[in-house]
Design a protein that fits this description.
Helix content is about 50%, strand content about 10%. With about 300 residues, it is an alpha/beta fold. The strands form 2 sheets. The protein has a 4-stranded parallel sheet with strand order 2-1-3-4, with helices on one face. Strands 6-5-7-8 form a 4-stranded parallel sheet, covered by helices on one side. Strand 1, helix 2 and strand 2 form a beta-alpha-beta unit. It is globular.
């Protein structure tokens, strides 16, 4: 009987420690993955392989927010669709924790490269639009990811105080892995850093800037605006004149436009995935390694 009571107590303790984490997009799931233990539940609102630009919020998503002990968002236009539902949940569930990654102290936020070009050519643009065009893909910076992980680790310690030291050790281990990852990516991409290429849309500035990659521009100014005839001709001329090695598509979007633009030109097609189209068991290190290899494979001559 004593053994049964002990086992029931142990089971209840484990159940009490188990938590649900609800995140808006797959890259946040990749950051959380190493902290999960048996019994914990991870819910990703945006389906793997989908684009956040056309997300439809459903009742099941609202339930996933209400059931969460911890909610993680990027906190910018990428998951703006979740802002009001989360505010609603936090008003009713006072014990639910919410972390908006872009609000972490010290996190680097970059302007979109379209905005950088405007500011280089127009003081008026600098005055009028300085705060309007922010690149939302903050998770593609390893330095930003270290700040995000520290925030997640602290929340985990608060939610699971009996595992505080284990969580602190885990955070230290992951941060060490990220530092090593940064060195590995630098080594991998150094031989191809000067090779010219184009991307489908401006989603990779945070990744490309630290490694000095030679991105000459985008096919689409935004996911909603397709290039016109004049832009298509300019892109074809750029590809030929600059000897562009690769044009990168994205799995979340149709590549019909891209295929049309490069028809008959001597250029390779690669694929980059800023959202992480991978199994939910993969972590952030796996995600970033895969992204770096996608660059290297297409840019290598």
């Amino acid at each position: 009987m004593k053994h049964l009571v002990f086992l029931m107590g142990l089971f209840m303790s484990l159940q009490a420690q188990a938590i649900q984490v609800t995140v808006t997009i797959p890259p946040l799931a990749a950051l959380v993955q190493p902290y999960l233990s048996k019994g914990d539940r991870l819910v990703v609102l945006l389906p793997y392989g989908s684009s956040p630009h056309h997300f439809q919020f459903r009742p099941s998503h609202l339930k996933a927010l209400y059931d969460a002990d911890l909610i993680l968002t990027v906190g910018n236009t990428v998951d703006l669709w979740a802002k009001k539902p989360i505010q609603q949940v936090l008003k009713q569930n006072v014990h639910t924790r919410h972390i908006a990654m872009q609000k972490q102290p010290g996190l680097a936020v970059l302007p979109s490269r379209e905005q950088v070009l405007l500011e280089e050519h127009s003081k008026e643009a600098l005055t009028q639009h300085h705060h309007d065009h922010i690149d939302p893909h903050i998770w593609l910076s390893i330095k930003n990811a270290t700040l995000m992980l520290k925030a997640i680790g602290q929340a985990w310690q608060d939610l699971k105080p009996s595992e505080a030291q284990e969580t602190a050790d885990k955070t230290k281990q992951i941060l060490s892995e990220l530092d090593q990852l940064d060195h590995e990516i630098k080594g991998l991409l150094k031989p191809v850093k000067n090779v010219p290429y184009l991307v489908l849309h401006d989603a990779f500035y945070y990744f490309e800037k630290p490694y000095g990659l030679n991105n000459l521009g985008t096919i689409q100014v935004s996911t909603e605006v397709k290039p016109g005839i004049k832009r298509v001709l300019q892109l074809r001329q750029l590809i030929e004149k600059a000897k562009v090695q690769c044009v990168f598509k994205e799995p979340q979007f149709s590549d019909n436009q891209l295929t049309y633009i490069i028809s008959g030109l001597n250029v390779k097609i690669g694929s980059l995935d800023p959202m992480g189209r991978f199994e939910s068991s993969k972590n952030y290190v796996d995600f970033m390694k895969a992204l770096a290899m996608q660059y290297e494979e297409c840019l290598a001559r």
